[in-house]
Amino acid sequence: MRLLFLSLALITAHPAAAIRARHFGIAPGPMPTGPLNAITDVPGVAVGQVTLDRGDTIRTGVTAILPHAGNIFAEKVPGGIFVANGFGKLMGLSQVRELGEIETPILLTNTLNVPEAATAIIEHTLSQPGNEGVRSVNAVVGETNDGGLNDIRARALSIADARRAIAEARPGPVQEGAVGAGRGTIAFGYKGGIGTSSRRTPEGFTVGVLVQSNYGGRLILAGVPIPPPPGKTAARVSADGSIMIVVATDAPLSDRNLTRLAARAMAGLARTGSAFSNGSGDYAIAFSTADSVRRTAARRAASTAYPELGNEATTPLFIAAADATEEAIANSLLAAETVTSREPETGETRRAVALDRALIRRLLAAAGQPAP
Fold first, then answer.
1. Choosing from 158, 280, 332, 341, which is the catalytic residue?
2. CA 117-251-244 angle, 5° bins
3. pTM of whole model > 0.85?
């Protein structure tokens, strides 16, 4: 019986198929998806996740996104960050904005475990062959506050957990819903979580998005307003909360245009009914995996001309980022199951219910949404 109370860490490289937005006919925009409809459709991108359930109070985890399989510190990727509302703790923000590059895996977790995630990134980076002389690491860690379901003050995530997420990161299918950094999150009063989606542009580029949804407002799916959970009114559903959005592309973009690409993710977030409230942290991180724009040591040490798409060629990528973000958020909600925990101080039961999928189908059908 004691095993029931031990920390359960789930790392899934090849998850089973889950319920996703497309099962309901939710397919924003005109562009096709990649084969997995996931951020890992972007060549080189890998995702690893550790989910923690301990006893009846710990509901948290970590999600790792790796831009490529090599030494990221030695071969940095151009990156950009856009902040719609900054009530959050995005570690590494200032250096990415200043230098326009990302040199580590990106980790997502809960608010109070950002230090552990950062330490894991630093240890991982220092241990890479070729990094023996490294004395500065700009760890990039995003967070949302999962204290509504998780005993966040227990700071349950360990450095080892976060390092395991990095080590187990793989290309391929990405598990969605109440997993990884999304285990304890709540969105619009419902169970939120991890979601992902991708788009292929007419020019052959891929844009992939992964989200950690934990925010509020009035939920909208495919343009259809969704009522709050049973027993709650719109006034009782908090508009506060946060979301982390990670956007990857194989298009050769400069850090300036990657910042613009990150900003377009907010259009997809807005379509889902986000309140962008004072108490919300709304962040998007974008990077390019294209070899031609990778910041190698030789390129960083010289005067280098990077081939990149011009401004006039960015519009399809902007559309792709907005549409994939909207769908990734829908996936994060529709794939999630109901999660229950106990408030450690009062002993009260806490519960975030999953979306009622039958209700969603009825509402979409009544609104004329075509069946899948």
1. 280
2. 30
3. yes
pLDDT band with cut points at 50, 70 and 90 for residue 7: very low
Is residue 274 annotated as part of the catalytic site, yes or no?
A: no
* HSE-CB for 34 with a 13 A CA cutoff: 25
Query: How many CB atoms sit inside 10 A of residue 89's CB?
Result: 18
Closest CA to 261 of 308, 307, 329, 317: 317
Q: Which of 242, 274, 288, 332 is catalytic?
A: 242
- Spacing of C-alpha 129 from chain mean position: 28
pLDDT in tens, 40-53: 999 999 999 999 99
DSSP 297: H
Among the options 282, 288, 323, 332, which is catalytic? 282
CA 37 remoteness from chain centre: 14
Q: Which residues contact 175 (CB under 8 A, 6 or more apart)?
A: 12, 15, 18, 49, 194
For this structure, is 341 an active site residue? no
Angle of helix 159-167 relative to helix 114-127, nearest 10 degrees, comes to 50
* Active-site residue, 282 included: yes
The span from the CA of 101 to the CA of 40, in Å, is 20
The C-alpha atoms of residue 84 and residue 102 are separated, in whole angstroms, by 20
Type of residue numbered 71 = N
